[in-house]
Amino acid sequence: MNLSPEISLRLDWATHEAAKYACENWHYSKKIPVNKLVKIGAWENGKFVGVVIFGGGASAVLHKQFNLTRFEVCELVRVALAEHKTQVSRIIKIAIKMLKKINPKLKIIVSFADPSEGHHGGIYKAGGWVYSGISAKTREYYFNGDWRHVTDVYKRLDAGKIKTLRLREKPGKYRYIFALDDSWKKRLELLKKPYPKCVSSADSGTLGFQPRGGGATPTDTLQFQDAK
Question: By residue range, what is the domain housing residue 114?
């Protein structure tokens, strides 16, 4: 799809190495999530500009609040992009189509915007996601030189060692939900709340962009070019 005479956008499956590079260089967390992930790369004019990553998320019980199975709910866990021209919401929209194609049982995607990192959810408002409120506070442990979610730490250490780590509470995040079928679009209306006043509909620029040199070239597999 040609967005303009100068910009051509393509999304494709990304290698773990490319996704890791994007997260470490172009996302504020500086790390790729653990567990099973769906990694989708984005290219503009043939240049790799980042990834959109879906996964199970930090919470092992995310699906239970919707009375769904863990195979029917996932989380948008990373949007790690270098400098680019395409609207972020458009990149996410195409990535969701690819995700749905290989996971037809999915009903809902959840994502969180962390205000403590300067993110409020403008890309979700632009993409028509439902804002459902602020998530509960979370706990983080300082481990291996970084603050990590309690779930991540419990996967790595036993309870005895965890007790020796520094602990902090982190405020809740803005929670956004996207329905993948009509029945859930209607159900989400019951959870819908007004977008936070700090959230505008602006949707351009980069998300968590950290200027760095170089790039990465994922192995091409399925090419997916969206048509309006």
Answer: 9-136+172-206
